[in-house]
Amino acid sequence: MTARRATVVVFLLAAATLAATVRLPAQTAPVWTVPEIGALPRDAHGMQVREGRDLITATYAHIGPNVADASKRYAGNNLACTNCHLQAGTRKFGLPLFGLYGDFPQYSSRSGNEITIEDRLNACMTRSMNGRALPDDSPEMRAMVAYIEFLSTGVPAGQKLPGMGAGNMPELDRAADPVRGRAIYLRACVSCHNTDGSGIRNSGPHTALGYMMPPLWGPDSFNDGAGMARLTTIANFVHFNMPHGADYLNPQLSVEDAWDVAAYVVSQPRPRKAGTDKDFPDLLQKPLDTPFGPYADGFSAQQHKYGPFAPIRAEIERLKKERAAKR
Ligand code: HEC
Ligand code: HEC
């Protein structure tokens, strides 16, 4: 061994000893560590978690409107939760279901009271899935909740994880423009979501009930009471996730194009949810872009649907201050 090599070896040994004795400080930043479902034992709990994931990735096959057992037809459309909660709810800014179990029960401005994780899931059942609520004690609800709880393994309750939701890009100072959006749709979306927004059905014999490319509007889509029917939600979702393959690190549409194409999608017909006028009993807590009234302010339904939102936001702030002063 040459003297130089020997020095290197001694150095490496010293470094190894150092690493073994000097402990690196524990990582304190929240980490996006999705637990591995395949590593779960195949006991009752492990099987329930797997079943929950199946319900989320192939919802249409288990509780969709066309399943053989009529008593299991809870969803009103053939979407899967994973069409919006991307990669079975594990993708950053793809509306993750990761790490949120400990946040429930929580106050919901939509219902004006405290809701459980089951209530929240049923809000997607009756709106995004345009169907009916699953009973809290049904095996399907238990399995999906077990999966969502499993996804939060090791995430302390109340921890704010970056990557939740669908992102938060800058707003436009004009109304989003569905006419301009149509041209973007024809360029960037039509090949998958189809000219009439109806998507492309699965063709495989075991998956035939669902979609290869999900619909964005029309009778088999989410209804107008769904979160995805709000411009801000869909615009951010599209900016950070669409066309399929884009992600938050590599958005493909400009901010402006994302707002306009989202405006085109929300301008199209979709199922109507009954009773949405009762949503958000405190109108000052109603999201600015809720596409249905009543509203606390004097702005038109059109402006609530397409923006610009800054003037509405300022007026709501003023009304909140006015109310606080009266109390
Ligand atoms: C059409 C898109 C879509 C589909 C399909 C969908 N969801 Fe959602 N879901 C959303 C959106 C958007 C939100 C956030 C709601 C908001 O911004 O008001 C959400 C929120 C949630 C939340 C709360 C998340 C949080 O951050 O607190 C849960 C839990 C949930 N969905 C479960 C499900 C389950 C389970 C299914 C399938 C049975 C499903 N969703 C289907 C769009 C969808
Ligand atoms: C290459 C195919 C492809 C292209 C192009 C594409 N999408 Fe998608 N889109 C998908 C797939 C597939 C999903 C379901 C998500 C999944 O399974 O990962 C989806 C999901 C969605 C959803 C949520 C689910 C639903 O049914 O509403 C929206 C909204 C959406 N896309 C909008 C758009 C818009 C707007 C464009 C154009 C800017 C676009 N997509 C371009 C394939 C595509």
Protein architecture, described:
The chain has 327 residues and is mainly alpha-helical. It folds into two domains: 40-151, Orthogonal Bundle (Cytochrome Bc1 Complex, Chain D, domain 2); 172-320, Cytochrome Bc1 Complex, Chain D, domain 2 (Orthogonal Bundle), CATH 1.10.760. The chain is built from twelve helices and four strands. It has helices spanning 3-21, 44-57, 59-63, 86-89, 117-126, 139-151, 178-188, 190-193, 231-241, 255-266, 301-306, 310-326, and strands spanning 106-108, 113-115, 200-201, 211-213. Residues 8-21 have low confidence and may be disordered. One heme C binds next to helix 8, helix 9 and helix 10.
Q: What's the layout of helices and strands?
A:
Layout: H1 3-21, H2 44-57, H3 59-63, H4 86-89, E1 106-108, E2 113-115, H5 117-126, H6 139-151, H7 178-188, H8 190-193, E3 200-201, E4 211-213, H9 231-241, H10 255-266, H11 301-306, H12 310-326
Antiparallel strand pairs: 1-2, 3-4
Helix pairs in contact: 2-6, 7-10, 9-10
The structure holds heme C (2 copies).
Concise account of the structure shown:
This protein is mainly alpha-helical and 327 residues long.
Please tag this protein with its features.
3% strand, binds heme C, 12 helices, 4 strands, 327 residues, 2 domains, globular, two-stranded antiparallel sheet, 39% helix, mainly alpha, Cytochrome Bc1 Complex, Chain D, domain 2
- Give the overall shape: globular
Q: Average pLDDT, to the nearest integer?
A: 92
Computed Rg: 24 Å
At the fold tier of CATH, the topology name of the largest domain is Cytochrome Bc1 Complex, Chain D, domain 2
- Runs in which pLDDT lies below 50 for 5 or more consecutive residues are 8-21
Provide the β-strand percentage band.
Answer: under 5%
Provide the list of bound ligands, each named once. Answer: heme C
Order of helices and strands: HHHHEEHHHHEEHHHH
| Relevant CATH superfamily of the largest domain | Cytochrome c-like domain
Write down how many β-strands occur, each being a DSSP E stretch of 2 or more residues.
4
CATH class of the largest domain: Mainly Alpha
Q: How helical, in percent, are the residues?
A: 25-40%
Secondary-structure class: mainly alpha
Number of helices: 12
Q: Per CATH, which architecture of the largest domain?
A: Orthogonal Bundle
Structurally, the number of domains stands at 2
Please describe the biggest sheet, giving its number of strands, its sense, and whether it closes into a barrel: 2 strands, antiparallel
What order do the strands of the largest sheet run in, or round the barrel if closed? 1-2
Distance between the termini: 85 Å
